[in-house]
Amino acid sequence: QVQLVESGGGLVQPGGSLRLSCAASESIFSFYELDWYRQTPGKQRELVATIFTDDSVYFADSVKGRFTISRDSTKNTVYLQINSLKPEDTAVYYCNAQNGLYTHWGQGTQVIVSS
């Protein structure tokens, strides 16, 4: 089974930046769509960004212009660059990989934006 491990979260001041990483246990990027989600307690999980197998991308309106998604197929790693952080960006961020038949989730990494 594919394993996904997120890292890079932490405590950041408003206006700061973070780069989140999601490392896959095997080479899957040719066949899997890669997504970043986020979730806060008591709220629905939100799709933040997607990179498709053809390298096209999607961003939620709430993060458009501030977030960038990219991948390094050699390292089997997908990244989420987060700039101009706001307090409302505080959440647990999850990596997801799906191909229409299977869906794999990471354990999540915590991002806290506070003064």
Mean pLDDT: 96
Helix-and-strand structural type: mainly beta
Q: How does the overall form come out from the CA principal axes? A: globular
- What percentage of amino acids are in beta strands? over 45%
Give the termini distance in whole angstroms: 40 Å
Helical content class: under 10%
Largest sheet: 7 strands, mixed
Compute the CA-based radius of gyration.
13 Å
- Number of E-state strands: 11
Question: What do these coordinates show?
Answer:
There is one protein chain. This protein has strands at residues 4-7, 10-12, 18-24, 33-39, 46-51, 57-59, 67-72, 77-82, 91-98, 103-105, 109-113. By secondary structure, it is an all-beta fold. The strands form 2 sheets. Strands 2, 4, 5, 6, 9, 10 and 11 form a 7-stranded mixed β-sheet that branches. The protein contains no helices and 11 strands.
List keywords for this structure.
7-stranded mixed beta sheet, mainly beta, 115 residues, 0% helix, globular
List the helices and strands and how they pair.
Layout (H helix, E strand, L loop, with lengths): L3 E4 L2 E3 L5 E7 L8 E7 L6 E6 L5 E3 L7 E6 L4 E6 L8 E8 L4 E3 L3 E5 L2
